[in-house]
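User: Fold this; C-alpha cells only.

Assistant: Input:
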Amino acid sequence: MAMEGRLNWTFELSNGTTARGLSASEKAQVGGFVAVIVLGIALNLTVILLVVFKKVPKKNTIVFIVNMAVADMSSLLLEPTYSINSIISPSSRWFGLDFVSSALCKAYIVLLNSVTWVSLITLLIISLERLKEVSSVVQLNTLSRRSLALLIAMSWALSFGLHTIFLAKCDAEQIDGSFDCVCLQEMDISIIFLVSNGLYFTLVIAIVVINLVIIRRLVHSQAAIDLPAAQQERRVKKFRSAVRMVLGSLLAYTTCVTPLYIFLSIYHVEFLFKKTLDYNPSEVAVYLFLLLFHVNCVLGPIMYFVFLDDFRHALRSLLWNKKRRSERTRSCNTTSQTIMGEMNEMDEMNQRHAENINEAMENREGINTCSRGTVTVHKNEVKENDEGKSGLARQLRNTNDATESSEVKTCKKAPVGYTNEAIDTNETEQSILDTAL
C-alpha cells in the first residue's frame, strides 16, 4: 500500500488544528483511534500470553496465530499513534531532517505497509497446511520448529519484499515549516501499488477457494481413512474449527481492509491516467476508512476465541479463575468483617463482664467491712456479757459466802428453823442466777 495516500489524507483530517485546542470532530477522531488501540492491544496481547504461559497447546495453527497477533499489535502501534499525533500536533509530525530521522522515516513506512500483509500471508499458509493434511490418507507428522520458523520468516520476508521500494521513495522533509515523513508521488509507486492491490484480491480469492476445497475433501475423506469413529469425529471437528477460523478471519480482514484499498486505488488511478474521477469522499468517510482498516486488528483475536476450542477453553478458564478469585476475595472480606464484628461483640461482653466483676468485688468488700464491724460489736457484747456474768458470779460467790457465814452464825445461835432459812437461801441463789442469765 502506498503510504503517501494514507498519510496525506490523514493530515487533511487534522489541518484545522491550531493552538486553540481540538474541535469536536477531532476529539471524536482521537477517541476512535484510542479505543481501537486499547482494545486491539489488549486482545492480541491476551492471545500471545495464553500461548507463552502454556494455557494453550503450541500446535502449528496456534503458532501461526501468534504470528498474526504480533503483526496486528505492530500495526496498531504504528499508524494509529501517528494519526493521533498528527491530529493533536500537526506542526510536529516527525523528528527532524537528520540521518536518524530519515532512516526512521524509511523504516516506519516499510514496516507500516508490510505488517498489513503478514496476516494475509499467514492465513494462506494455514490454509495450505490444512489442505495438505486433509488430502493425506495417513496422519502426517507435525511441522518441526525449524519449518515453523521458516514459514513465519517467509511471511514477513514476502511482506517486506513487496514494499522495499519505499526505502528509496520515502524520506523526512520540511513542509510549510514543519517536519514530515512523506513519499514521492511517482509513476512507479502508483504502478506497484495497483499491482499489490491486484495481488491482495488474488490472495483473498485463493484462501477462500482453498478452504472450500478443504471442506469438500473433509467430507469425502472420512470413508477413505481407516480410523476409529471417535478419532474421525475429533479429526473432523479440528478441521472444521480451523476452516471456520480462517474464513471468519478472512471475512473480517476483507471487510475492514477493502474499503481503504479501493479508495487508495482510485487515488492512484487518477494519478496514472491524469484524470479526476467523480469521486470526492468527505473527511468523515476517509477517517472511517482508516479507522475500519485497523478494526481488523481487534476482530482477529475475537475470531480465535470464537472458532478455536483451545483459545476458547483457555479464556473461559482464565475468566472463571478470575471470577473465583474475586468471589474468594469477597468471601474472605465478608468472613473477616464477620469475625471482626464477633470479636468486637466479645470485647464488649468481656468489658461488661469485667465491670460486673469489679462491681461485685466492691460489693463484697463492703459486705466484708460490715461483717467485720458486726462481729466486733458482737464480740464486744459477748465480752461485756462475759464480764457481767463474771461480776454476777463474783457477787453470787460473795453472797454465798455471806449467806454461809450468816447461816453458821444463825445455826449457832438458833438451830430451830434452819431448814426454812436454807430453803430461802436456795431460792435467793436461784433468783440471782436467773437475773444473771
